[in-house]
Amino acid sequence: MAPTPKPLPDMSAEPTSAPRLVVVGGGPAGLMAAEIARAAGFEVDLYEAKGSVGRKFLIAGKGGLNLTHGEPRPAFDARYFERCEAVGRWLDDFDAAALREWARGLGVDSYVGSSGRVFPLDRKAAPLLRGWVRRLRESGVRLHVQHRCIGWDEAGALRFDTPGGELQVRGDAVVLALGGGSWPELGSDGAWQDWLAGHGVDVAPLRPSNCGFDIDWSTHFASRHAGAPLKPVIAHWHDAAGDAQSLQGECVVTASGIEGSLVYALSAALRDTIERDGHATLRLDLTPGRDLARLRRDLGRPRAGRSLSEHLRRQAGLTGAKAALLYEVLASPRREDAEQLADTIKRLPLVLRRARPLAEAISSAGGVRLEALDRDLMLDATATGLPPGVFCAGEMLDWEAPTGGYLLTACFASGRRAGLGAVAWLRRHAGKPSAASG
Ligand SMILES: Cc1cc2nc3c(=O)[nH]c(=O)nc-3n(C[C@H](O)[C@H](O)[C@H](O)COP(=O)(O)OP(=O)(O)OC[C@H]3O[C@@H](n4cnc5c(N)ncnc54)[C@H](O)[C@@H]3O)c2cc1C
């Protein structure tokens, strides 16, 4: 059971000359909150655990930086599953078009690819991040790197581990944008779960999202085919409501199972099924272009002394890892039956045992439950031991989405929402800003 939270003093009661927002976490969500508050004229200090901000954003750029998606709303909102309404409210203020316009303001034009995904023209994150950080600094946002937040002290100050020792920091409002728990080497390690839950904040444990899965491959298959792409294939699976779904795409065989964009797109449903049933069965159509009747007919033709591998190549166009999968899932006598072979090619069953660990996932599910926050993303002070004026944003919130630019879009939009919320709160509780920023 979580310890009973001890109330902390209300930071807003502390007299300060110029109202100040403290942002913790220098990813897209935190930087956006900082930008909003500074533009409204408030003092802003941003604290980041690593030696530089935006490390995960830069890594996202290695894959081409899928900034957002061209899909219109409300289909766009539906990508956030049961959180579509809440995320939709953030998008009302800052949708894909607004994000592209914002990037244009930093000199980064974007284009919609054939899949609907939106990328910067140069497909890089570094120029956008560099320009943004420069603009933030010039506007007066103070960035403090190598400051790792470890929670609040009893007097209501935020505690930071720094190279010079522990530091206590007070702000008139706080935005936490600490990220999820994937790729922890980039800074977001989910350690905040313990200290926030310790203060009575309702946190759903972080879980892998957009992740690969383990399959009990034979040693022979894994050693020969790890790294092999499976494309194109159609995945058939059942969603949370038990309805049959299918999607065409690409995946990759790994030494321990399977990963890739198609698997990531289904990962929430597959992960939840494994949690409920102990395993999930994903069925792959290995020959999307050929129908079952034709396959049965072609595979029923006499082999004329040819090996099964050669027969599969000639009659079904199957080679490499796709053909090897048939040997992996079909026992020898059944492979000789053309109908069974054809049926399996159209619905190859893969039994997924486990989601890969959170550290390897592209993103996290779970996090601070949205019910613990008001519409401005401020934590409910009455339900926690924390003072009012603490906001949360980004991937540390309890929503998930597939890849395709939906992750970054929600991080930017929630950062903006928390920033606007903090500005409104500062205006009400901490007085007027000292001077408008540039
Ligand atoms: C390989 C990879 C590729 C991706 N590609 C894409 C893509 O193309 N498109 C897309 O939409 N999404 C992509 N994502 C996801 C996207 O990068 C994240 O969803 C997004 O960066 C989350 O933003 P955030 O600001 O919430 O958190 P983060 O970007 O994780 O930033 C949080 C920051 O907080 C800091 N921090 C954490 N704890 C503390 C602490 N205690 N004290 C101080 N600072 C702390 C961290 O160091 C970090 O800098 C990708 C992710 C990965 C791993």
Summed up:
By secondary structure, the chain is α+β, with helices and mostly antiparallel strands.
Task: Note down, in words, how this protein is organized.
Strand 13 and strand 14 (244-253) form a beta hairpin. The protein is elongated and about 90 Å long. Helix 1 (28-39) packs parallel to helix 15 (406-429), helix 4 packs across helix 15 (406-429) and helix 10 packs antiparallel against helix 14 (338-346). 47% of the residues are buried. It folds into 2 domains: 18-209 and 363-429, 3-Layer(bba) Sandwich (FAD/NAD(P)-binding domain), CATH 3.50.50; 213-355, no CATH class. Helices cover 35% and strands 22% of the residues. With 438 residues, it is an alpha+beta fold. The protein is built from 15 helices and 20 strands. The structure holds flavin-adenine dinucleotide. Flavin-adenine dinucleotide binds at residues 24-30, 47-50, 53, 55-57, 59-60, 63, 65-66, 148-149, 177-179, 182-183, 187-188, 191-192, 362-363, 394-395, 405, 407-408, 411.
Key terms for this structure?
438 residues; alpha+beta; FAD/NAD(P)-binding domain; 2 domains; seven-stranded antiparallel sheet; disordered N terminus; binds flavin-adenine dinucleotide
